[in-house]
Amino acid sequence: MPLSRNPNTHRAILHLAIPNLVSNVTVPLLGAIDLAMVGRLNSLESMGAISLGAMIFNFMYWSLGFLRMGTCGFTAQAFGAGKQEETVLTLFRSLILALGGALFLLVLQGIILRLALLWAQPDPALTEAVSEYFRIRIWEAPATISAFAFAGWFIGRQDSRTPMWVAISINLTNILANYLFIFVFDFGFKGAAMGTVVAQYTGLLLNTGFALWHLREPGGQRGKTATELTENQESTVKQSAVKRPLQRIPFRNIWQIAVFKRFLNINSDIFLRTLIIIFVFSFFTAQSTHFGSEYLVLNTLLYQFFIFYSYAMDGFAHAAEALSGRFTGSGEWERKRATVKAVFLWGIGIASAFCLVYALAFNGIFRIFTQDARILELSGDYYFWILGVVLSGFPAFLWDGIYAGSLATKPMLLTMAVAALGFFGAYFLFRGSLHNHSMWLAMLLFLSLRGLCMSLMARRIVLYPKKISHHES
Predict the structure, then answer these.
(1) Angle of the 29-39 helix axis to the 161-179 helix axis, nearest 10
(2) Residue 435's CB: how many other CB atoms inside 10 A?
(3) C or N: which end of the chain has fewer Cβ atoms within 10 Å?
(4) 3-state secondary structure of 6
(5) How far apart are CA 364 and CA 381, in angstroms?
């Protein structure tokens, strides 16, 4: 039976994708919880501080999110090859990089805050409130950035449930801590920042505990059945049964120059790719204001349709990343190719489902966000762009995961650069004739080019590559 039709393949995908999807949905909840509780203070200044402050942190952490993807790829390949010591070393390398990034933010926090305020230009009263919120929340940086490393490590080890439970725990802690600091201890909006810091360090403790739990058994294969292990992994487990993992890890190898250099190169590729994405989407928002405030609101609300869809597709992209890396590391190329086919079947199904829901219920969903008559009237001319973005976007999401798991990050960066050129070319070429529609045409082209370019390169780079060892650079 072809593996793409094998229920075990689909079960493995769903086993990783569904917890990832739940984890993704919890991401915006931290900011939403802060806003909801501070909103009860009936202070516009407090609401503004939370909104602008959350935007600054979202921007910073999004740019550092590359750490999850890079860690997952290295871990999954080492896991697939049965090299458990290497998976642990990968975690430590990633945590070193995470703490370095956190130290960078802490040292330069004053400059970062000034630049953010210069860009946003809030009024003086809001400036002081945002500054207070920022100076408290910035101390969550070590815990928050380390969470990217832990999440990538867990997913690379084919465990997406642990990051899900950690994310849920962080949000529950955030709710309780916010309530205590805002309403019981009467810290006002600053209590929201304190609550978030407490929640993130709770997540750090949980991540550390779960990581140690993962390594309790010889070989680090806790929770895996014999049928789920490759021959390489079974052999590694048997050979290492006399020692526990942490006792036999050659920690001096963390600093092997060649390996650490490659780790940095891979993560720098993903970082630059992420910066391009941030620039494109920031440009999309900024340029929307040039067509008038009603179009800024319209595009912001339409973008929410894309966000909902991206949460679902990201869950499957993360599953593709973990499985792609695992089968690359183990050299099981037929299983990898079959998994790619299966993941794309799920992608087609999810994209089709979203298109159907959006086509049938677009107006009803849009009215949840606004009752403004002018915005509602304008939205009727744009729903077909949302359908186009959904259909054109899923290959880009899924290939991102597959390429990242394969550690094929240079092609990912090149593809993103080409797609960005297409985005800006389409916008500047058509903005005069298509007005605001040019923004959505550019976005459609951006997503389509990413998917198309990676599809054209996939056979040579990730499906039938000449270099089949994850040790090769």
Answers:
(1) 10
(2) 12
(3) N
(4) coil
(5) 15
Phi-psi region of 158 (alpha: psi -120 to 50; beta: other; left: phi over 0): left
Structure tokens at 464: 């039938």
Residue 403 · residue 395 · CB < 8 Å: no
Residue 36 CA neighbour count, 13 Å, CB half: 10
The CA distance from 178 to 236, in Å, is: 46
**How far apart are alpha carbons 106 and 13 in whole angstroms?**
38
At position 352, the amino acid (one-letter code) is S
Query: Among positive and negative, which fits the CA dihedral 303, 379, 313, 428?
Result: negative
Contact 65, 148 (CB under 8 A): yes
Is 47:39 a contact under the CB 8 Å cutoff?
A: yes
Token pair listed for 437: 């529609």
Q: Is 435 helix (H, G, I), strand (E, B) or coil?
A: coil
Angstrom distance (rounded) from CA 41 to CA 56: 22
How confident is the model over 180-219, as pLDDT tens digits? 999 999 898 899 899 999 999 999 999 999 999 988 754 4
Cα separation, 240 vs 244, whole angstroms:
8
User: How far, in Å, CA of 263 to CA of 257, rounded?
Assistant: 10
Give the distance from CA 175 to its chain's centroid.
23
Higher local confidence (pLDDT), 243 or 268: 268
pLDDT (tens digit per residue) in 41-76: 777 777 778 878 887 888 888 888 889 999 999 999
Q: Cα torsion at 120, 123, 127, 128 (round to 10°)?
A: 180
For residue 347, give the 3-state DSSP assignment: helix
- Residue 245: the pLDDT is 55
202 Ramachandran zone, left/alpha/beta (phi>0; psi -120 to 50): alpha
The total number of residues shown for the chain amounts to 473
- Taking only the tens place, the pLDDT of each residue in 62-119 is 888 889 999 999 999 999 999 988 899 999 999 999 999 999 999 999 999 999 888 8
Q: Give the contacts of 26 (CB within 8 A, at least 6 positions apart).
A: 167, 168, 170, 171
Q: Is 85 helix (H, G, I), strand (E, B) or coil?
A: helix
